[in-house]
Amino acid sequence: MFKHKDIIKFSEVDQDKKLGIRGIINYFQDVSELQSESMGTGFLKLDKNRYGWIINSWQIQIKRRPTIGEVIYSATSPHKIKGIEGDRNFFILDENENVLVNANSIWSFFDRDKKTLMRVPKSELEVFKLYDPYPMEYEPRRINVRNIDQSMILPDGEVKVRYSMIDSNGHVNNERYAELACDYLRRDYKYDQLRVEYSKMALEDDVIYIRHYEDNERYVVFLQNDQGENFAICEFKEI
Length: 239
What we know:
Layout: E1 2-7, H1 21-38, H2 43-48, E2 51-62, E3 71-82, E4 85-94, E5 99-111, E6 116-117, H3 122-125, E7 154-160, H4 174-183, E8 193-198, E9 207-214, E10 219-224, E11 230-237
Antiparallel strand pairs: 1-3, 2-5, 2-8, 3-4, 4-5, 5-6, 7-9, 8-11, 9-10, 10-11
Helix pairs in contact: 1-4
């Protein structure tokens, strides 16, 4: 497991003075990049060769959100690379290395020029050490929304993609979808697991339409284009 010590800062916390979803995912993304850089295969190298990793899904389980001023470790351990896909566990640990947040993520390797997925090159396979998967109940990559009655999906609003929402890959960063979903989540809704499934890349000036569905087991937020196609789906629930 690769770890990086840090402290929860004022700019990272929500109104309750605790690290929010955006901050959690940003820590995960940053520690992944730090590990890759330590092995000589970080973003700049991949970008120079016109390659990259794109996220397919998150499954994030929250035991406790750390508070402002708390010392933490962000950590990651890749546990599978096969074909075009790579799977990573992520963690937020407290100062005594107890798990506060754990996650699984599924990524695909991407050819930036051809804009297609590709097999992970041998040069990448050779540098990654794989670990045993973290013992958690793993959900499928795809969130099951097939049986939802469409009349039960309610509109919430719309957001135009601004320049500030675009990352170095030229599209909306993956944590922004989760942040948007949280903005439209019912304020008193309690959850300790968030799953995010990514489908399409939202670009500058696109409009994201937010809709939601709720039942006794979960709260699902759809982030869609004007054709009803999903940029991302976010599922909140208690486990």
